[in-house]
């Protein structure tokens, strides 16, 4: 199942810099592990924003929920989740 997830990051100005740096490092490692496994198919920075658009390939809604809840930066994020279906005009075989 494919999902588009838009993640807006809002870190409070008074947050502990060491804690934030650790969470960013953990987020990067978590993201890159899931990308290497093929679960986190794409991640794009939205130009000019501390925000990304990502495509996930997961088994179920519950799997996506668990993945999102485990994001180290989750406490600082607003999420928008959009389920995706294959477009009838798509020509890429892996867009399913
Ligand atoms: O910087 C972001 O958009 C938040 C984020 C998600 C995965 C990652 O490495 O950073």
TrEMBL record:
One of its GO terms (molecular function) is muconolactone delta-isomerase activity. Signal peptide: none annotated. Pfam families: MIase (PF02426). Residues 1-89 form the Muconolactone isomerase domain. It catalyses: (S)-muconolactone = (4,5-dihydro-5-oxofuran-2-yl)-acetate. It is an enzyme of class 5 (isomerase). GO terms for biological process: beta-ketoadipate pathway. Belongs to the muconolactone Delta-isomerase family. Pathway: Aromatic compound metabolism; beta-ketoadipate pathway; 5-oxo-4,5-dihydro-2-furylacetate from catechol: step 3/3. It comes from Novosphingobium aureum. This is Muconolactone Delta-isomerase. Homodecamer. Keywords: Aromatic hydrocarbons catabolism, Isomerase. Its EC number is 5.3.3.4.
């Amino acid at each position: 199942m494919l999902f588009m997830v838009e993640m807006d990051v809002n870190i409070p100005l008074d947050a502990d810099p060491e804690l934030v740096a650790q969470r960013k490092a953990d987020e990067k490692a978590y993201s890159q592990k899931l990308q290497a496994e093929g679960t986190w198919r794409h991640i794009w920075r939205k130009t000019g924003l501390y925000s990304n658009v990502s495509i996930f390939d997961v088994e179920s809604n519950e799997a996506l929920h668990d993945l999102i809840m485990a994001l180290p930066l989750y406490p600082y994020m607003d999420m928008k989740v959009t389920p995706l279906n294959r477009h009838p005009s798509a020509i890429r075989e892996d867009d399913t």
